[in-house]
Design brief:
The chain is an alpha/beta fold. Helices cover 36% and strands 15% of the residues. The protein contains eleven helices and 15 strands. The strands form three sheets. The chain has a seven-stranded mixed β-sheet with strand order 4-10-9-8-7-5-6, sandwiched between helices. α2 runs antiparallel to α8 and α10 packs across α11. The longest helix has 23 residues. The chain starts with a helix and ends in a 6-residue tail after the last helix.
C-alpha cells in the first residue's frame, strides 16, 4: 500500500508542477507530523518527524479540542451507517442544494447569530450563504453584493476591485492581483499600503498620505463602474500576513462606500479568531463596517470543507426582487457533517482569545525580534498578529533565497508555508493551531529563527535592495 501511494504521488497533479513528488503525511499531533518521502524507490524508507508551522490557516485546533469538534460528525455518521446497513431510514449526511437543507443548518445559524460582527437588531435582514472553500465564498460574497447593486438601480456597477497585492483564490479563476491567463475583464486593481509599495526612505506618514491621494485618484476614474471593493484586513500569502494599517483601512472603506461601492472583507485567512483581536471577525475590532464578510479554512475543523459569505443586510431587498445567490452548486451548504463540525468549532474557539494573544507575544519574542536583529539583511519585513505571521526575505544576486531557506528548514525539521512573492526573495507564513501549547510554539519559532539565520549566513553580501 505504501508503494502504491508513492506511485500515485508521481501521477497526482496538485499544487505543484506535474510530476512533483510531495511528501506523504502519515500522522500528526499538535504541530508535529510524521512523513515519508514519496520520491523514495524503497517502500521501507523510515518516516521522518518534523514540525509543521501551519498550512494557510487550515487547521484551527489540535489534540483533545480537535477530537471534541469532530465527535458530533463521527457519531452522526456512525448512526447513519448502522441504519443504512440495517435497511432503515438514516440521518441525512448530505443533501443536494435543490433537494432541501440539512437539519444541522438551524443550530449552525443560531451559533453564528450570537457571534455576528454587527448588531443584529440594527441589521434585521442579515443573511449568509455557504460554500465549500474560500474562493467560492468570495465569489458568493461578490455575487450577492452585485445583485444588491442591481436591485438598488446601479446595474452599471459590474466591476470588482482588488488590491495591487491580493489573493482571493486560485489566480486562474478567482479574483486577485495575479492573472496567469491574461487580464480579468471585470476586475480593477487599486493601490494598497503593502510593504511592497513603500518607497525606500518613505516614513509612514508620507506613505499613507501618498496612498490616500492615489486611491482618491483611482476612485475618480473607476468609482462609477465598480460595484464591490475586496479588502483583506490582514493579507494572506500575497504579502505574507501583513495587517492593514487600521486607520487607513477604515479610511479606504469609508471612501469607497461614500462613492456607492459595497465593501467585502475577505477574512478567509485571518478570521475565526486567528487575528487575535477577539471574536470571529477582525473587521469587527477595526471600526469598519463592511457590507459583507467571508470565513473559511478551518470553519469545518480543517476536515470537512466549508466556507461562508455573510451579508450585513439586504436580504429583504433581494427577497422582494426574487433574487438569490447565483454562486450555487451541488454541495454548497449540503454537508451535515461539515455543519455540525462548524457549530462545534464556533463553540470551541470562543474561549481561546487570551491564549491566542499570549501566543502572539511569544512569536514576537522568539521569532520576529531574533531574525530582525540577527538576520544580516536577509529579512525584508516581519509582521503579523494573533497566530498569523509572515516574513518576507530579500532577493539575492547569487542564489535563490527561498530555496536556501527551504533547505535550512529541512535541516532543522520545520515546515512553514513557503510563499513566492514577486519582487522579493520569497517568504513564509506561520499559522499553527490556535490552541498550540507554549513550549511547542516556542520550539517552532526557535527552529524557524535558526533557519532564517542560517539562510542569512549563506546569502550574506548578495542581497538586492
Amino acid at each position: 500500500m505504501a508503494f502504491a501511494a508513492r506511485v500515485a504521488a508521481a501521477r497526482y497533479a496538485g499544487r505543484f508542477a506535474v510530476g512533483t513528488h510531495q511528501q506523504i503525511v502519515l500522522s500528526k499531533v499538535g504541530a508535529t507530523q510524521t512523513t515519508v518521502q514519496s520520491s523514495s524507490a524503497n517502500a521501507d524508507t523510515p518516516p521522518e518527524i518534523e514540525m509543521q508551522a501551519g498550512l494557510a490557516c487550515s487547521q484551527p485546533l489540535s489534540g483533545h479540542r480537535m477530537g471534541a469538534v469532530l465527535t458530533p460528525a463521527l457519531t452522526l455518521q456512525s448512526e447513519a451507517v448502522a441504519a443504512l446497513r440495517a435497511g432503515q431510514p438514516a440521518n441525512i449526511l448530505s443533501i443536494h442544494t435543490s433537494g432541501g437543507v440539512s437539519p444541522a443548518l438551524e443550530p449552525f445559524a443560531e451559533a453564528l447569530s450570537s457571534r455576528l460582527p454587527f448588531c443584529a437588531a440594527d441589521n434585521p435582514d442579515w443573511f449568509f450563504n455557504l460554500q465549500i472553500e474560500g474562493a467560492s465564498a468570495v465569489h458568493a460574497g461578490v455575487d450577492g453584493l452585485l445583485q444588491l447593486q442591481r436591485v438598488r438601480g446601479h446595474a452599471g456597477r459590474t466591476c470588482v476591485a482588488v488590491s495591487a497585492s491580493s489573493y482571493h483564490g486560485p489566480p486562474s479563476t478567482s479574483f486577485g492581483s495575479r492573472a496567469p491567463f491574461g487580464p480579468k475583464p471585470s476586475q480593477r486593481v487599486y493601490p494598497a499600503p503593502t510593504v511592497l509599495a513603500k518607497a525606500e526612505g518613505e516614513d509612514e506618514t508620507r506613505f499613507h498620505a501618498r496612498l490616500k491621494a492615489e486611491f482618491t485618484a483611482w476612485l475618480d476614474v473607476h468609482a462609477d463602474e465598480v460595484g464591490v471593493l475586496l479588502v483583506e484586513p490582514q493579507w494572506g500569502s500575497s504579502v505574507v500576513g501583513q495587517p492593514w494599517p487600521t486607520e487607513l483601512l477604515r479610511w479606504y472603506c469609508e471612501a469607497a462606500q461614500a462613492r456607492g461601492i459595497l465593501v467585502l472583507a475577505d477574512e478567509i485567512m485571518c478570521g475565526l479568531h486567528r487575528h487575535g483581536r477577539g471574536g470571529l471577525f477582525a473587521s469587527a475590532t477595526l471600526g469598519i463596517a463592511p457590507d459583507a464578510y467571508t470565513l473559511g479554512k478551518g470553519l469545518g475543523g480543517g476536515v470537512y470543507p466549508m466556507s461562508m459569505a455573510l451579508f450585513r443586510g439586504g436580504g429583504a431587498e433581494l427577497e422582494a426582487a426574487g433574487c438569490g445567490i447565483v454562486q450555487s452548486h451541488t454541495f454548497a451548504g449540503s454537508s451535515t457533517l461539515a455543519l455540525v463540525t462548524a457549530t462545534a468549532v464556533l463553540d470551541e474557539l470562543s474561549d481561546l482569545d487570551p491564549h491566542i494573544q499570549s501566543s502572539a507575544r511569544l512569536v514576537e519574542t522568539e521569532l520576529n525580534q531574533p531574525i530582525t536583529t540577527d538576520g544580516r539583511g536577509v529579512v525584508w519585513a516581519a509582521h503579523g498578529q494573533g497566530l498569523l505571521w509572515g516574513v518576507l526575505l530579500r532577493p539575492s544576486s547569487r542564489v535563490d533565497t527561498l530555496e536556501v531557506f527551504r533547505e535550512e528548514c529541512g535541516q532543522v525539521k520545520v515546515r512553514p508555508y513557503f510563499v513566492n512573492v514577486a519582487g522579493t526573495g520569497g517568504g513564509f507564513i506561520i499559522s499553527p493551531p490556535l490552541d498550540i501549547g507554549e513550549s511547542e510554539l516556542r520550539e517552532l519559532c526557535q527552529r524557524l529563527a535558526q533557519a532564517v539565520k542560517a539562510t542569512a549566513v549563506r546569502c550574506e553580501g548578495t542581497h538586492r535592495a
